[in-house]
């Protein structure tokens, strides 16, 4: 069953969650299982928060933290990861640098909106240092590998985000893009990358 679940698209997962064929906790456990299986070889997620993700899943299943339930696009318990260039409350935001950073005190607005829409954050993603480059080669936190072919790069700068989705570590991920930093790694890893307009 876990093979089936981690290979779903985000749309399929949200539909199955809404029909209660699977639970948010099922998907968090699948993400945790995939992380144990393929990390650190893929090196897409340097910081994990699985216990917190389990708590969030259980809260959703108990009818709590369901602010956007019933709204179009409600994510219903979808596991997601966040490029380590955005603040996630309780986790350090390093920008892929060697500098030690304290834990963030609040979520970035994009992360807050994802959580309000029912997404469950399972960790953060590797990137090119400070998102300044197209390969995600990073001497400080390591380079994310392409799950389709580990001898190849995942692209950048949101390489860890694309690699996490391609490897089934999360069913969606946030990246950032100024010049192809979402679309390039998505293309390299064989997943969909979308950059909305400003």
Name the features:
198 residues, 8% strand
What this model shows, in words?
The protein has helices at 2-6, 10-18, 24-38, 50-61, 109-116, 159-166, 183-189, and strands at residues 47-48, 79-83, 120-125, 172-174. The mean pLDDT is 94. The longest helix has 15 residues, at 24-38. Helix content is 32%, strand content 8%. Strands 1-3-2-4 form a 4-stranded mixed β-sheet. Helix 3 (24-38) runs antiparallel to helix 4 and helix 6 packs parallel to helix 7. It is α/β, with parallel strands linked by helices and 198 residues long. It contains 7 helices and 4 strands; from the N terminus they run H-H-H-E-H-E-H-E-H-E-H. The protein starts with a helix and ends in a 9-residue tail after the last helix.
Low-confidence runs of at least 5 consecutive residues: none
Number of strands: 4
Global outline? globular
Strand order of the largest sheet: 1-3-2-4
Q: Order of helices and strands, N to C?
A: HHHEHEHEHEH
What kind of sheet is the major sheet?
4 strands, mixed
Instruction: Give the DSSP E fraction (strand runs of 2 or more residues).
Output: 5-15%
Rg measurement, Å: 15 Å
Overall pLDDT: 94
In short:
This protein is of the alpha/beta class.
